[in-house]
Automatic annotation (TrEMBL):
First-level EC class: hydrolase
Keyword tags: Hydrolase
Family: Belongs to the sulfatase family.
Residue span(s) of domain Sulfatase N-terminal: 44-374
E.C. no: 3.1.6.1
Position of the signal peptide: none
Transmembrane intervals: none
InterPro entries membership: Alkaline_phosphatase_core_sf, Sulfatase, Sulfatase_N
Name of the protein described by the UniProt record: Arylsulfatase
PANTHER family, sorted: ARYLSULFATASE FAMILY MEMBER, ENDO-4-O-SULFATASE
Organism: Allorhodopirellula solitaria
Length: 485
C-alpha cells in the first residue's frame, strides 16, 4: 500500500533511518519573551516522548507516504534524525525501564511485560534532575509497575512514578484503547474484555495517587496532552522534565471518525492505525506550539522514539510496518528493536542533522545527565550501559566505539531472545524455544537475510563470549551487586 522509499530496498541502504527519538530541550526561561528575556545559561528543560508499538516504517520521515506525521517530520528536520536507533528490548516494559535508568533491562530485572516492576534501588532520570531542582512529571503509559496500590495481580507489584522521582503523574499501568480509553471498543474480545464494557474497571488512569474520572473521552493522546500542557505552563519559570509515553498505536488501536476519514481510501484496520498515529502526531504539534508560545523551544531538549517494533499481528497483516527490516515486536531481528527516532534542540543540535551511529534507549540517561549538568550525581555503584549522545549529535565524536546488547526473556515459555551488535556484526539468538543463533554483517546485509555463522566461526565465537560476559555482568546487577541491602 505504501508508495514510499521505505519499501524499496535499493533506496534504503544509504539511509537506514531509525528515526523517532526526539530530544527537545526545555529551559526555565519559561515566561514569554516580552515578559522575561531568555536565560542562555539556564539548564535545559527536557521532554521525553515515546510512542507504543510504532514500527520503523510508520512515520513520514522514514519514507512512509501514507501515514501523515507532519509534526514528527518537522522535528526530525529541525534537529537530528537518528537512522540507527534501537530499543533495548523488542517489547515495552524492558525498554521503558532502560530509558529511565541508562541500563540494560537484564540489569534491573524487568525482562518482559508484566514481570516485576522498577526497583527503588535504581537511579532514574527524574531522581537525578531533582538534585538540580527540576520539577518532574510523568504522563501516559507507565508499564514498569502497578499504579493502583489495591490492585493485586499474579505478576508485577505496586511501583508508581512517584516512587521513582516524579513529582506529578497521570498514568496507567498498561495498555488502554487509543480512543475512549475507559471503554472496550467494538470488535475487541481479548484479555477478558467484551465490547462496550468498562476497560479495566472503567478508570485506568491514576493522577497523583487518585483514580482519574474526568476528561477521559475521545482521543487518548489528546487526553494525555491535556495534562502535559498545564504542567509545562505551571513550571515554565523553572527547569522541568516531562516524560510523555503515549499509548498510540498499541492495540486496541482505535481512531476517531475525523481521523479515520483522512484515510478513507484504506480499509478499517489501516484507518484506525494510521488515524491513531496522526492523532498522536497532532498532539506533538500542539506541544511544540506551546513551547514556542512560551519562548522555551531554544532551551529545550526533546526525545521521541518508539518502545519497540510494530505489533506482531498488525505487522503480519501488512498494516503496521518495520519498513524493509526483518521481524517485528517480540523478535530479536532488526524489525523488533530498530525504531524511529529523532532529536531536536534548536541552537544546539544543527537542523537537518542525520546520524547512522548505532545508539539506544540506554543512552537517554547519560545524554540528559550531561546536558543538564547532573552526571556527577550518577552512583558509581550502578553500571551505566549508555553513552552521552551529544558529541554524536553535534559532530564532535561521530563514531563512538561500543557494543550494544538487547534481551527479552520468559523462560516458562522457552523464550530467551538475546542479541549483541559489535561494529557492523550482529549475533542474534532467536526468542524461541530453539534458541538458534545467527550471525549477520549489517553493513552488507541490513535485512538479515544471510546467516554467516558457518563462514565466520571465529567471529561468531568472539561475539558469543562477549554476549556471555555482558549477561553475567547483568545477572550480578540483577541479583543485588549494585544495591545496598
Amino acid at each position: 500500500m505504501m508508495k514510499s522509499r521505505m519499501n524499496e530496498r535499493s533506496g534504503f541502504g544509504a539511509r537506514l533511518s531509525v528515526g523517532v527519538f526526539c530530544l527537545i530541550g526545555l529551559s526555565q526561561s519559561a515566561l514569554k519573551a516580552a515578559e522575561q528575556p531568555e536565560r542562555e545559561s539556564a539548564p535545559p528543560n527536557v521532554i521525553m516522548l515515546m510512542s507504543d508499538d510504532q514500527g520503523w516504517g510508520d512515520v513520514g520521515f522514514n519514507g512512509n507516504d501514507d501515514i501523515h506525521t507532519p509534526n514528527l517530520d518537522a522535528m526530525a528536520a529541525g534537529g537530528a534524525r537518528l537512522d540507527r536507533f534501537y530499543a533495548a528490548a523488542p517489547l515495552c516494559s524492558p525498554t521503558r525501564g532502560s530509558c529511565l535508568t541508562g541500563r540494560y533491562p537484564f540489569r534491573f530485572g524487568i525482562l518482559a511485560a508484566h514481570t516485576g516492576a522498577m526497583r527503588v534501588g535504581e537511579t532514574t532520570i527524574p531522581e537525578l534532575l531533582k538534585k538540580k531542582d527540576y520539577r518532574t512529571g510523568f504522563f501516559g503509559k507507565w508499564h514498569i509497575g502497578w499504579v493502583k496500590p489495591d490492585v493485586v495481580s499474579s505478576r508485577g507489584f505496586y511501583s508508581p512514578p512517584s516512587h521513582h522521582g516524579f513529582d506529578q503523574y497521570f498514568a496507567t499501568t498498561s495498555a488502554v484503547p487509543t480512543w475512549d480509553p475507559t471503554v472496550t471498543p467494538e470488535g475487541w474480545s481479548k484479555w477478558g474484555n467484551e465490547a462496550g464494557e468498562p476497560w479495566k474497571g472503567g478508570f485506568p488512569y491514576v493522577q497523583d495517587g487518585e483514580e482519574a474520572t474526568e476528561n477521559l473521552a475521545g482521543d487518548d493522546s489528546r487526553i494525555i496532552m491535556d495534562r502535559v500542557i498545564p504542567f509545562i505552563e505551571s513550571n515554565a519559570d523553572q527547569p522541568f522534565l516531562a516524560t510523555v509515553w503515549f499509548h498510540a498505536p498499541h492495540e486496541p488501536v482505535v481512531a476517531g471518525e475525523e481521523y479515520k476519514k483522512r484515510y478513507s481510501k484504506f480499509g478499517r484496520l489501516r484507518q484506525n492505525y494510521y488515524g491513531c498515529i496522526t492523532a498522536m502526531d497532532e498532539q506533538i504539534g500542539r506541544l511544540r506550539a506551546k513551547l514556542r508560545e512560551l519562548n522555551l523551544e531554544k532551551n529545550t531538549l526533546v526525545l521521541f522514539c518508539s518502545d519497540n517494533g510494530p505489533s506482531d499481528g498488525l505487522a503480519k497483516k501488512g498494516v503496521a510496518s518495520a519498513g524493509p527490516f526483518r521481524g517485528h515486536k517480540h523478535t530479536m531481528y532488526e524489525g523488533g528493536v530498530l525504531v524511529p527516532a529523532c532529536v531536536e534542540w534548536p541552537g544546539v543540535i544543527p537542523a537537518g542533522t542525520t546520524s547512522d551511529v548505532r545508539c539506544s534507549t540506554v543512552d537517554f540517561l547519560p545524554t540528559i545527565a550531561q546536558a543538564c549538568g547532573v552526571e556527577s550525581a550518577i552512583k558509581s555503584s550502578l553500571p551505566i550501559d549508555g553513552i552521552d549522545l551529544m558529541p554524536v549529535l553535534t559532530g564532535a565524536d561521530p563514531d563512538p566505539d561500543r557494543d550494544l546488547f538487547f534481551g527479552y526473556r520468559r523462560l516458562y515459555q522457552g523464550t530467551d531472545g538475546k542479541a549483541i551488535i559489535s561494529g557492523d556484526w550482529k549475533l542474534l539468538q532467536e526468542a524461541k524455544k530453539s534458541g538458534r543463533r545467527y550471525l549477520f554483517d549489517l553493513s552488507k546485509d541490513p535485512y538479515e537475510e544471510h546467516d554467516l555463522t558457518d563462514e565466520f566461526p571465529e567471529r561468531a565465537s568472539t561475539l558469543s563470549r562477549k554476549l556471555a560476559e555482558i549477561e553475567a555482568s547483568c545477572q550480578r546487577s540483577r541479583d543485588g551487586a549494585d544495591y545496598r541491602y
